[in-house]
């Protein structure tokens, strides 16, 4: 395929050289004449292991060249990959000025350049941009300004390259993500990256844009977490590196998809108390661990947000399906659902609760004491069936996917349904008032 790569920094240079090495005809574009001259001479414009050799081979084969002229790059181009910088603005916002200038240059070049066979050009943002950029910035530029003979489709195809191992990451990415609503662009991008032998995640543009931020935020969080663990345990004579070596061997919970699903707050007998203990260890050792302290604060905000949503609904009768801290247990110790029920009752809401596992008279010890202290009028609130919990309810708060509860929910079809754990199926999602995770 014929591809143009706008921007010859780390991402653009690796992308251009990597595509050329797999047989595509690539023209790189940059406003920096020095970068263009370096690449044209077969040298990498950036320091990146293995990239110099890749560029030298691409230039020697004739499949890779560089220019400062966008028109030259767009001549019969089928794909245009925008790889320009998106630095932070004065207030932390993403500066999209380089993206906007690059896109305007592409649009203007189409009035001069010849279109490819078939006329379709996929303009693909590879730079990291906030969700909504494709809809609000990229697509409008080409809505009514496309030259005759050209059809422009827009897309987002985020990169997952790390400086220092960018070439290796280019050929072995964690996944291939294609964000577009245009079927032709989907086909072109699958062809462009066919050498990866990866199934493409076909998603909407905003999902593709958001994914890169989610990944980078998690990477940053992991670095901070490991360092905070080290600061706390250092005072206790513990080798935190050894702790984390063993920690990383757990691929069931630690290094795994477990818990990485948007949903309701955490609770139970372990997580809250052990976090508090770590907080105490940190204070005792005069160590700052803001991430660990913020974890508890952020968890509380999840409960508060659900309360705010119920208040905003303007409705006063609430049916709760599920009360324990997670499914398939009757443990209500520090359950966020108990906290939620307590807050709603305190605000005067008419609350009825059904839990498929919980039998109050069977509770013992701390579990029973916690529930009676938080909800002393539980016998009045508990319903024997999901149908009775939902009878007359305007709002349903669901934290169980037990089949009887789901069937009752479908039959009741309340005005507002908040799926707190995102575990309900497509049939429930079809309800008019459904709000799943990520609302």
Secondary structure topology:
Layout: E1 2-6, H1 10-21, E2 25-29, H2 33-40, H3 51-61, E3 64-67, H4 70-74, E4 79-82, H5 97-109, E5 120-125, H6 133-143, E6 151-156, H7 166-171, E7 176-179, H8 183-192, E8 200-203, H9 205-234, H10 240-247, H11 271-284, H12 290-313, E9 317-321, H13 336-346, E10 350-354, H14 365-374, H15 378-381, H16 386-390, E11 395-398, H17 403-412, E12 416-419, H18 426-429, E13 434-435
Parallel strand pairs: 1-2, 1-4, 2-3, 4-5, 5-6, 7-8, 9-10, 9-11, 11-12, 12-13
Q: Any descriptors?
A:
single chain, 439 residues, alpha/beta, 6-stranded parallel sheet, 5-stranded parallel sheet, 18 helices
Shape: elongated
Average pLDDT, all residues: 93
Question: Structural class, judged by helices and strands?
Answer: alpha/beta
- Low-pLDDT ranges: none
Proportion of β residues? Answer: 5-15%
Helix count equals: 18
**What's the total number of strands?**
13
- What order do the strands of the largest sheet run in, or round the barrel if closed? 3-2-1-4-5-6
> What profile does the largest beta sheet have?
6 strands, parallel
> How much helicity do the residues have?
40-55%
Query: Distance between the terminal alpha carbons, to the nearest Å?
Result: 40 Å
The protein's oligomeric status is single chain
Radius of gyration over alpha carbons?
A: 27 Å
